[in-house]
Amino acid sequence: MSESVAAEHDYIGLSMEASQMSDNKTKTRDNNNNKNDDVLNFKATELRLGLPGSESPERVDQRFLPLKSSCPVSGAKRVFSDAINGSTKWVFSPGSATDVKDIKPAVPVKEKKSSAAAAPPASKAQVVGWPPIRSFRKNTMASSQSQKQGGGDNNNSETDGEAKSGAEPCLYVKVSMEGAPYLRKIDLKTYKSYVELSSALEEMFSCFTIGQFGSHGGCGRDGLNESRLTDLLRGSEYVVTYEDKDSDWMLVGDVPWEMFICSCKKLRIMKSSEAIGLAPRVMEKCRSRN
Amino acid sequence: MDRRFPFKVLEHIFSFVDSNEDRNSVSLVCKSWFETERRTRKRVFVGNCYAVSPLKVARRFPKMRSLTLKGKPHFADYNLVPDGWGGYAWPWIEAMAARRPLLEEIRLKRMVVTDECLEKIAASFRDFKTLVLTSCEGFSTDGIAAIASTCRKLRDLELRECIVDDLGGDWLSYFPETSTSLVSLDFSCLDSEVKLSDLERLLSRSPNLKSLKLNRSVTLDVLESLLRRAPQLVELGTGSFSDELDPEEIAKLTKALSELKQLKSLSGLWDLLPEYIPLLYSVCPRLTSLNLSYATVQMPDLIDLLSRCSKLQKLWVMDLIEDKGLKTVALCCKELRELRVFPSGADLDETDVTLTEQGLVSVSEGCKKLESVLYFCVQFTNAALVSIAKNRPNFRCFRLCVMEPFAPDYRTQQPLDEGFKAIVEKCKDLRRLSVSGLLTDKAFEYIGVHAKKLRMLSIAFAGDSDLMLHHLLSGCQSLKKLEIRDCPFGDTALLENAAKLETMRSLWMSSCFVSFGACKQLSQKMPRLNVEVIDEHPPKTRPDSSPVERIYIYRTVAGPRLDTPEFVWTIHKSPEVGVSRLSIR
Fold first, then answer.
1. Model pTM score
2. Among A74, B257, B409, B509, which residue has the least CB neighbours within 10 Å?
3. Where is it located (chain A) (predicted)?
């Protein structure tokens, strides 16, 4: 019953093979109500089980394919069925698709390393709490690396689970989304522009209705120029905001990219109605939620 | 004729009963034994602070001198429990301060401790001796200062991996100017610098100090001056070990280290530079415990160090030790009982380090006393697990973290079922197990059948169906703590084995498929369980069939707790009420 090699899947949907197998497996499943008719690739679309550095969770799809359950967030169901039916209502424009969405078959780690090196860097979104290492240790290691790289720089090893910006090789910030039941963590250093960041965020939170969010072509030298991105963001249902070094909440896209990654401590995707003007009460709200 | 032993005789007999488990059994025999036992128990352990009310505990044990409490679920260590969930120390401190002012020792793990708590402790317990906080949060260095300044009989002050609001190093200067009774001081988790002169003077007037763990900001150039003032140390946690020293300083430090004739345990060693390893040679032969898990030393430098540690019983390292280094350990550290190997890279997919399953196999062959292992590795094989089990049937704690979720045996592509089967079959005394890699329901069937002494089990990304949970709950007789994340089940198994849950301390399940409806049923079925749903979305707005994000189920005689935050719902017992306001808040 266990699959050792995962079939290739389309990132969001299911492969032919998978759908067939899901029929078999369904019989042995109990207790999961069919709330919708589509076979939801629940786990894969949530991207919770993505391996660090890999494109997608290969084996996850196999294992969770037949499980039929509704996404805990209301409204997401509609998103899934739209997505699978290829409806244009679904938010991610084809232009933003990268080969990140293809899943390679499971291979032993050695081979995987070379394929990972060859492929463009995937969004290095990490699963919360995996591998199971205490924050204290993670932070200490992050500071060690910064010491090695930053020369005489005295580290500011935080104890609250977030790496600060600076000369560190990895710049993990938490990303939360209003209405989402979980946080993600991303390494800002793996992105070179707002465009890349926004595609990554789209993928991460794809099972929630995000709206027309991000890349609409127009790649200038730094991808989209900042003001255009801001306009786009303002037009959509959701906006991305971040907490900077001074603990102020700002709209993403207002400052040059380099400055942004140096000052960003946390990201939060919130409804644009909440974020307009980023009034003080919104900041309070952000703080109390976090 | 009164056949009962006189109280005094019973009391005397019970004074030889140390373990709390035995004492718990003793108190179940009859009323008079219960009474006698409770009046004589000095060390009280409460594994889940919400299982019983502080008032009840304070009343039951009039002679208590030591209290140990644990708060948040273990998975809180890995950020799976949202901030604000609970685990507040205050109600306990308050209750004890009012009723048990002779309390001397408080040990807290994964709890929220505020400065008010610390000030209350300092103000209320005149003989207070021991404060050990592990993975706690919520307090600042001001609270520590209160303890330091007011507790005149303080012996142990240990902050282990706590999250402290660090307002500066002044707290150290608050210890009384007269000679102190300090035996152990651990401030390794603090960030800010303490004044060297404060520390030197403290050491000079603490003749009983046996254990000192410095924080990283204590630089290498001052270590010598500190050690000179505390040559009696048995445990030393250094600060950073990477600053540049001139030859004279090196010579002095080498000498100071060699003067530590009683030193048995060495830790800290942040960023240990290879050229400083020889400084440690003099202490190696006596060491029973060595924590290199923050020392970014690589092979082959590590060999020089480890080959000299023939008495080592406990070794914590990073995977920089590689298979080669572990071979050396297998050859040289014949007394080894506990091994932990942590991953060194922040980016776990791109390790250049050759640590494989072979390293653990070597150690299991060479170290006959090895009984506790925590091993992070990228991938594993069944064959290795089988060898390890055959070599070391004396494992009590086996935690393997194959870092790639769902990774099969990389040689055969099979699940690791057979490997873990060997572990639970051979290691009859296994108390704690963490599994990982690709696992089907079969693995858990094996665990259910064989792991009869297993008390704690951690599972992630495993299993196929409800059967997995069913095997565990129906098979593992001694199971007390079960924590599961990202596994595809399990209303049926939970409801079928509901009674089992009252024999356990707690069950944690996150990102599984437990429906809200099942949570309700479970709670209504089992009166002495708190079924907590931890989810951003109010259960009322969702259908019964929708899966909940996280559940935490624990037995309790205290009823639903009243300090839940907005994202935690304790399911109400009565079916008509469902989820009540009272239970929510």
1. 0.72
2. A74
3. Nucleus
